[in-house]
Amino acid sequence: MVCKVHNVKCMKSKPVYIPHEWHDPGDLFIGGMASHIHYISPKPLFNRKPHQSSINIPFVVTKFYQHILAFVFAIDEINKNPKVLPNATLGFHIYDSYSNSRMTYRTTLDVLFKSHHFAPNYKCGIQENVVGIIGGMSSDTSFRMADILGLYKIPQISYGSFELRLNDKIKHPSVYHMVPNEGLQYQGIVQLLLHFTWKWVGLVVVDDEGGENFLQTMESMFLKNGICSASTERVIKNMKFSPELSDIVYDVKSILPSFLRNKAKVIIIYGENPTIAWLGCMITGAMMSQAVFPHYKNLLSTAKVWITTAQIDFTWHAVQKVIDSDIQMFHGAISFEIHSKELQGFREFLQIVNPLWEDGDGFIKDFWEQAFSCSLSNSSVSTFLVNPCTGEEVLESLPAPFFEMNTIGHSYSIYNAVYTLAYALHITCSARTTQARTGARSKLFHQNVEGWQLHSFLRLISFNNTAGDEITLNEHGELASGFDITNLVTFPNKSYIRVKVGSLGPQAPSGKELVIDGGRIKWNRDLAQCLFPSPETCIHCPEDQHSNKDHSHCIPNISNFLAFDDTLAIVSTSSALLLSLVTAMVLGIFIKHRDTAIVKANNRSLTYILLTSLLLCSLCSLLFIGMPNEATCLLRQTSFGTIFSVALSSILAKTISVILAFMATKPGSRMRNWMGQRLAYSIVLSCTVVQAGICILWLATSPPFPDLDMHSMTEQIILLCNEGSATMFYCVLGYMGFLATVSFNVAFLARKLPDSFNEAKFITFSMLVFCSVWLSFVPTYLSTRGKYMVAAEIFSILASTSGLLACIFSPKCYIILAKPELNNREHLIRRKN
Q: CA–CA distance from 404 to each of 68, 315, 495, 694 (Å)?
């Protein structure tokens, strides 16, 4: 083609190359977005060197090539029918999304603006007039396309997506769905389970927004109908496959799906087509694991009744061909499918397909090579294949998981979508051409039709397709139709047929939308005898009960608290009594030797107060043992906090007394006025009153009380003291921490003062122990539940009490009992000097 613009000649230039597209000229264009090809990166393995298999390879979902052919078949029919568009021909431009967001944006823009006849800086010829685009199959592809097409108000008809976000006609007024409302499918699943009295099921869902919505909706419907979910397995959307057997076995060993381990015989699968590919690899890997690891045989249960939603088709790809996956693992599956009928002439159309049949088909080569495992010249994957294609291959020879000759649901939706756009164009152009006087002007009208002008007609579209089905869109832009229920019957040659066994109609009375013929269903061979032994009953156990291992009845939960006969309680009680006995003995020693120099040297009265408080601290730990009641709950934390505050304030008073005693020895010091028992008692009293005030405020506003925790531990009820106010509890602990920190700092500063018997350095060590114990207590307390939480607090009380007693009093007891000759005034004065 040569065109002249201002006397400048421009030649047809080569467009930017995209490996997979199909372009066919026409007066009006319909775009298409397939999900036929995936670039799958093998799972990275770090225990071996990278090799050629690490390169991204285009993997063709060969079964989906029928989607593209259904599109072309519909265009061909329309162009041959003078009653639809009598004065124009439909052209098309089909791309692939590659199941990749970035490529979806790229190819959508190419459909709209890429010209196959252009020269740089010049417009040569007429721009392709795209009046609508059909796609995509997945929710993600549909949503990415809508981002672009919504800006230009070009109609988009999705043929497989139930994307919830696209149902908002305010945000996405240009999107239509050639699929029914998904809520009808949810009702059908519940009615199917109730029909066969299946009350114990597992769920496999894709891990995205749609999967979460499915779970929330189904769990609510299950609860209303007495159905229980045994397990939920989430499948990531962007998964990686490895064709090596050892890697498949390794994956199953490391991430064995829960639904293969539980006893639920019915598994509902919600997702998109990669989900079924992942499932096939996992089950194949599980079977391999049983052969490689015999102990897996009693753990894995691969015989299930699979229930799949309409977004899923039973497709096999090249990876599954390599690992020799067998479709018989899904024998007996029950599928919800988009309603479809056989299209007259479509099978004959498929029979003429071959690698040389159309020059514009950019999909056929990769499809043919991967479908028949042979090599064609000038193909992107030829280097990986050995046997050349003979030219005698026919589509009918392929097993159904790789290609079907019967019309599949998504192909039927694409066929109807093409006709929907064509009839909308027919109405639009008919209204325009009634004003035209000549056929040439009529042709011009066709060329000037814009996509946005079709919306008013698409919302009201209604016609009968060539198969006799009425095609109508509801007020939400969804197909006003229902679903087919099919049963998968597999054969030893790795093929299958889909047998229609029921339907799901939106016009039926509520609760009776499902019609199914159970007698026509071929069940899984390993389950046929045991799937319906008797009607199942499934009830939710009360909060204080849980189901037994066989899920046949409810049994009471076990009470969890630190009982007196518990091993932890016996050890704790023995430790508390032993510590209190040792503390009482130390107190007795100090009382007996109260007139000796070492007892009198560091404020005898404060020593008695400290030892008494330590004795009570060890005994207050006993309040935490036994079944919680109102009295023990009120006393546990408040008595513990108050008594420990007395001990800490006594230590602080003793340390301050050491500092004042040293300062008072200096000539002219006024500190002598502060010396005496009054200051020490004031420190102890004031510090204790603050903690007592916090405890009183706690008890007055939000006191602790006995409580039950039925959710933190399965199969157990935790009997505990609810703290009432966690803030007040941590205020008590925080104030103790404040006293300990002040005591540590004062003792650290006074540790080297030359007093007659300076115990400040021993107090420093005791405060280090105390702070270490309680700093480690807080995270331990927060991370444990039940009796172990109580045991953690008892241990902290006893450990910190032991630390104070040992660090402060063991040196003194050693001198009193083992070295009495050092316990005299002359020796202490000599040490001081």
A: 13, 10, 10, 77
| pLDDT value of residue 778 | 80
Rounded Cα–Cα distance for residues 142 and 132 (Å): 14
Inter-residue contact 807 to 747 (CB < 8 Å): no
Q: 74 with 149, same domain? A: yes
Distance between CA atoms of residues 349 and 74, nearest Å: 11
Question: Is the omega angle on the peptide bond into residue 135 within 30 degrees of 0, that is, cis?
Answer: no
Q: Are residues 643 and 765 in the same domain?
A: yes
Tell me: do 89 and 28 sit in the same domain. yes
Note whether 235 and 142 are same-domain residues: no
H or E element at residue 805: helix 787-813
Write out the H or E segment, with its range, that includes residue 367: helix 364-372
For every residue of 657-707, which 3-state class applies, written as one string?
HHHHHHHHCCCCCHHHHHCCHHHHHHHHHHHHHHHHHHHHHHHHHCCCEEE
Whether 477 is in a domain gets the answer: no
Residues 147, 165 within the same domain: yes
* β-strand partners of 473: 479
Instruction: Report CA 440 to chain centroid distance, whole Å.
Output: 60
Global pTM exceeds 0.85: no
3-state secondary structure of 152: helix
Distance of CA 108 to the CA centre of its chain: 30
Count of C-beta atoms within a 10 Å radius of residue 3:
15
Residue 572 CA to residue 581 CA, distance in Å, equals 14
CA distance 513 to 187: 8
Q: Are residue 281 and residue 161 in the same domain, yes or no? A: no
621 and 595, same structural domain? Answer: yes
Q: Which of 101, 132, 99, 103 is nearest to 18 (CA)?
A: 103
Widest CA span in the chain: 134
What does DSSP assign to residue 815? I
Q: Taking the CA atoms of 210, 212, 214 and 220 in sequence, report the sign of the dihedral they define.
A: negative
pLDDT score of 223: 86
CATH number at residue 597: 1.20.1070.10
Res 440: pLDDT: 44
User: ∠ CA 613-616-621 to the nearest 5 degrees?
Assistant: 130
The answer to whether residues 53 and 97 belong to one domain is yes
Task: Please list the ranges in the chain whose pLDDT falls under 50.
Answer: 1-17, 51-55, 118-119, 123, 125, 241-255, 381-383, 437-445, 534-535, 756, 832-833
Choosing from 422, 439, 471, the residue where a domain stops is 471
CB 307 within 8 A of CB 268: yes
CB atoms within 10 A of CB 546: 17
Integer Cα distance of 59 and 41 in angstroms: 10
DSSP element (H, E) containing 604: helix 604-620
Phi, psi for 335 (deg, rounded to 5) = -125, 135
**Cα–Cα distance between 380 and 37 in angstroms, integer?**
13
Q: Judging by beta carbons within 10 Å of its beta carbon (0-12, 13-18, 19+), is residue 216 exposed, middle or buried?
A: exposed
Note whether residue 807 is domain-resident: yes
Task: Kindly state the tokens that stand for 104.
Answer: 């979806």
Confirm whether 240 is domain-assigned: yes
Number of domains composing the chain: 3
Determine the Cα–Cα distance for residues 710 and 767; give it in Å rounded to an integer.
39
SS3 (DSSP) at 511: coil
Q: By three-state DSSP, how is residue 311 classified?
A: coil
Q: What is the pLDDT of residues 41-65, one digit of tens each?
A: 555 555 555 544 444 567 888 999 9
- Cα separation, 489 vs 330, whole angstroms: 8
pLDDT at site 447: 56
The three-state secondary structure class of 647 is: helix
Task: Tell me the CATH number at 32.
Answer: 3.40.50.2300
* Parallel, antiparallel or unpaired: strands 200-206 and 266-270: parallel
- What's the Rg (C-alpha) of the chain? 41
Instruction: Find, among 204, 228, 200, 199, the residue nearest to 214 by Cα.
Output: 204
Q: Has residue 256 been placed in a domain? A: yes
Range of the domain at 412: 18-180+408-471
